[in-house]
Amino acid sequence: MGCAVTAVVQAGRVTAPGRATAHQAVDVRPRVRRLGLRKPVPLAAGSGVVLLLAVWTAGSATGLIDPRVLSAPWTVVTTGVDLAVDGRLVENLAVSLGRAAQGLAWGVLAGVTLALLSGLSRLGEALLDGPIQVKRAVPNLALLPLLILWFGIGEEMKVVTIALGVFIPIYIHTHNGLRSIDKRYVELAETLRLDRRRFVTRVVLPGALPGFLLGLRFAVTGSLLALVVVEQVNGTAGIGYMMELARTYGQTEVIVVGLVVYGVLGYTADQAVRLLQRRALTWRRTLED
Amino acid sequence: MAAHAGGLSTTAAAVVVRDLVRSYGTGAGVLDGLDLEIAAGEFVAILGRSGSGKSTLLRALAGLDHDVRGSGRVEVPRNVSVVFQDSRLLPWARVLDNVVLGHEAPPARAREAGRAALAEVGLAGRERAWPNELSGGEQQRVSLARSLARSPELLLADEPFGALDALTRLRMHDLLRDLLRRHHPSVLMVTHDVDEAIVLADRVVVLDAGRIALERRTPARDGSRPTADPGPHRTLRAELLEALGPDTDPARKDTL
């Protein structure tokens, strides 16, 4: 290094003595306004949540926040612990998770099947895509009265509602994923004389997997959203039921515990899908990082 | 025009194309009554400017022209394999899985054939790699291995080395010659590189406006090709470039 620098300086002295000093240490760059983001600050991601918690704590401690409006954070924590200890939280959580999982499973199955039918055949597309787009335009909540009439207010209605919310993003993203598979791979499959079954399992499904997994992320969060709604319609168990009951008795702290549980559930589920995404798409990760 | 000058071998034709017509709806025919025969084990290179119909011919032989209007007779062997300009490896399948994709043999035998083919192209040990981890030349070698693993009777190659740098391309020429010496498929290779055509093929065909404009056998048919005897090579090269069109010169041949 040192040698190289002296060499440059000496060369500079010989050819252009005036410029040698300017080239030595000063980092001269063309001036370009930065439009992109600066480098991320470490640990900054959590600061918003910490700030919010701090405001909440301070408000409760000073009495600015009425505990009837919003319980103090420590009340929420102790209530959470109490609920967990006496088993109510776990029991309700299990019921809720069971519902979400069941709805998710049916929704994913329906979404993938419909995406394949409509994605791989012109007839399927003509028959299926239209109605699904119409369904997509109707808010899930607007269907609830009809679903209650059809399925009653029991478990069936709840699972169906969740599944109906889930299959849309799965369908949209899987369909889009498999329709955007490079035509060159289809040609390849033709020249390799793949039969339809192998074409679907070796080319279509893996090719549509990135799309499917993106849809799954939406679907997982969607299933929890639908859960909130259906559990407050005449439930007899579940996190939503627990919260609804707490509203009747004015137990703000239980409601907040329920909210926290929903939040943690959603976040954990999303992280789980992202992990799955990274695992399943190793072939792509070699490009990304 | 001295077409058929080399004399077509009428014995054991692997490929027979008779009066082939193809057009893409816009009226003008892309292939206009083309006749071509390829003998078993023969290597034919197709040269032509863009729009001369060379890719259309290859796609017709590969059976990839589903929605293209046309008529004529195309006879190809049962076992045809295509090498594309891009390696066309499925990015989500590991190298060996790509090589055995669609292989007719039972899985164990297919994988064995796949491993052998990979070893032949010098990629033994890379079976578990992802295609994206390989260089362009390596990817194209995997694609060659995929074709060879199913012992094709006819190998169709659409500018197989067009996307590679000059040095890699020369290495691929050697590799291909070596592979063909052992496997003996008939080959139809579309290329825009006159030298590549002369160096590799037994016969060079120049297409123009959907018809054969010129057809020549290459100087030597054994291993001691052009470099040992540059004279005939140069003459043929000049003749082919002439047939490719008036605005063709060696410096611009890549844009054809």
Give the low-pLDDT segments of chain B.
1-10, 222-226, 248-256
Q: In the CATH hierarchy, what is the class of the largest domain in chain B?
A: Alpha Beta
Instruction: Kindly report the name of the CATH homologous superfamily of the largest domain in chain B.
Output: P-loop containing nucleotide triphosphate hydrolases
Give the termini distance of chain A in whole angstroms. 31 Å
CATH evolutionary superfamily of chain A? MetI-like
Number of domains of chain B: 2
Radius of gyration of chain B: 18 Å
Write the CATH fold name of chain A: MetI-like fold
What can be said about the biggest beta sheet of chain B? 6 strands, mixed
Supply the CATH class of chain A.
Answer: Mainly Alpha
Strand percentage of chain A: under 5%
Keywords (chain A): Cell membrane, Membrane, Transmembrane, Transmembrane helix, Transport
GO biological process, one term (chain A): alkanesulfonate transmembrane transport
Transmembrane segments (chain A): 41-65, 103-124, 136-153, 159-178, 199-229, 249-269
InterPro entries (chain A): MetI-like, MetI-like_sf
Task: Summarize this entry quickly.
Chain A is built from 13 helices and no strands. Chain A is mostly helical.
